[in-house]
Amino acid sequence: MGSVDPVAPELVAKIFSALYVRQQASRVQWKNAQCNPYCVVEERPLSVVVRHPNYFTSLPGEYYTSPQIFEQEKEKVFKRKWLYVAHVSQVREPGDYVTVRAALESLIVTRDRNGAVRAYFNVCRHRGSQICDELSTGKAKAFVCPYHRWSYGLDGSLLAAPAMRNGEDFDYPEFGLQEAHCEVFYGSIYVWLGKEPEMSLRDQLSGGGMFPINDEKLSSIEPERVKMIHENRHIAKANWKIVMENNIECYHCASGHPDIAVVADLENFYYERGDDGELVACGVDSSFGLKEDVKTYSMDGERVCKKRLGNLADGDSFVWADMVMWSSHPHFCDYSQKMIVHPISVDTSEIVLQWFVHEDAVEGVDYEVKDVIALFSAVAEQDYVFVERQQRGVSSDRYIPGPNHSLRETDMEAALLDYIKLMEA
Ligand code: FES
Ligand code: FE
C-alpha cells in the first residue's frame, strides 16, 4: 500500500486491451503512457500499487494465495465480464447442447426452437441437482433432471414435474431454468454471469469503444464458419491471474518456447519507446508475430490445413482477446485457436485450448489433428510448468513483486490495472 498522485484517468482505458490496439494497426502509439507514474480510476487512487515511478510490478502475494480475495473476485470480477464459453458450431441445430464451464459455474448452452442460442445455469429448480453432466454434449428435445425427473424445454421453461401439477401444487412458469445473458460475436458465444451486463459485449471487446472492432476484416474471415476439431483441458495448480499474466507476456518466450521462436520473430511481440517516450507496439500485428515467409503457427511454419479461413492469406492473422478473464482467439490462415482460463480455486485453474478449422475441411484429406494442434500443445505444456512453479514461489513469505519489463511484459500492466479497477469499484 502507498500513497499515489492523481493523474490522467484515461490511462487505464488507453492501455486496456492492447491486443486490440495491435490488431488495428501495425504501429500504435500510446501517448502519456510513460509519464504517468501512477494510475487512478474515476479520480480515486488505486490502493493496490502495481505502477511505480520507473516500472510496474505484479500483484502482492495475497492476490494469488488468499481465499478471501478469491471470494471477492467471484462477485467483483467473474460476474462483471463477458466470458467466452463455446462456439456456435457446437450448437448448430435446435436442441444441440453443450455443458460448459463459465468461471465457477456450469451452464447448459443450447439452441432453442427459434434458432436462438441460450445459456442456462445447470441447476435444477427443484432441489438444485445438476441437470446435465458437466462437459457433456448432445441433442435434446428437453432437459430432464436425473434426480426426480423434472423436465425443461429448450426455452428453459418447466414442462413437467412428476406427480406435481401445474397450477395446483405450484405454478410451473415460476420455476423455469435460470438463464445467463448470452451474446454471439462472430460465432463465439459469450455469457454474463451477473444480473445485468454493465457493458455490451462489443464494448468489452473494443476496450470501451476506443479500439473499434474491424468488422470488415472479421466478416472476411468468417470466424463462425469453423468447426472444433480438438479440445485440451488441463487443471493447473496456479491462480487464474498467474495463468493470465503468463499468456499475456512473451518475455519468457525466447527461453521458454523454442517452438514459437522457429516461426515467430519475438521482437514483434514487444514494444519500443518512440522519440518522445511514448509506447509503440512493434511489428506488423496482422501477422501475430510470424516471421516473413512463415505461413502459419505450426512446427515448421507450413500450413496444417488445406482449407483457408475466409480470405486470410499465408502469414496473415487476426486476434481478439479479453485481457482480464483471459481468453484469446487468434485466427491464422488455416486454423483458429481459443485459449481460456477458468478459475477453480485460489490456487487452481483450468486451462482450456480449442482448435478449429474451416467447417468444410475433411480430416485425413485437408488436415491431420496432430499437425494442427502440435505447436500450441507444446507451448501449453511448457506454460503449465511455468505457472505452477510461479504459484509455489509467490506463496512464499519472501515473495515481493519485482519490476516487470516495460517493453516485453507491457500488456500485463493493462490487464492488472483493469483487474484492480474491478476489484476496487
Ligand atoms: Fe432435479 Fe429433483 S433435483 S428433479
Ligand atoms: Fe508461454
Verbal overview:
With 425 residues, the chain is of the alpha+beta class. It has 2 domains: 23-80 and 226-425, Naphthalene 1,2-dioxygenase Alpha Subunit, Chain A, domain 1 (Alpha-Beta Complex), CATH 3.90.380.10; 82-197, Rieske [2Fe-2S] iron-sulphur domain (Rieske Iron-sulfur Protein). 23% of the residues lie in helices and 24% in strands. Strands 4-13-12-7-6-5-8 form a 7-stranded antiparallel β-sheet, with no helix packed on it. Strands 14-20-19-18-17 form a 5-stranded antiparallel β-sheet, sandwiched between helices. A 3-stranded antiparallel β-sheet has the order 1-16-15, with no helix packed on it. Strand 2 (40-41) and strand 3 form a beta hairpin. Helix 7 crosses helix 10. It is globular. The two termini are 17 Å apart. FE2/S2 (inorganic) cluster binds at residues 124, 126-127, 129, 145, 147-148, 150. FE2/S2 (inorganic) cluster is lined by residues 124, 126-127, 129, 145, 147-148, 150.
Distance linking N and C termini: 17 Å
As residue ranges, the low-confidence spans are 1-43
Shape: globular
Percent range for β-strand residues: 15-25%
What's the number of domains? 2
CATH homologous superfamily assignment of the largest domain: Naphthalene 1,2-dioxygenase Alpha Subunit, Chain A, domain 1
List its traits:
425 residues, alpha+beta, Naphthalene 1,2-dioxygenase Alpha Subunit, Chain A, domain 1, Rieske Iron-sulfur Protein, 2 domains, five-stranded antiparallel sheet, 11 helices, 20 strands, 23% helix, disordered N terminus, binds FE2/S2 (inorganic) cluster, binds fe (iii) ion
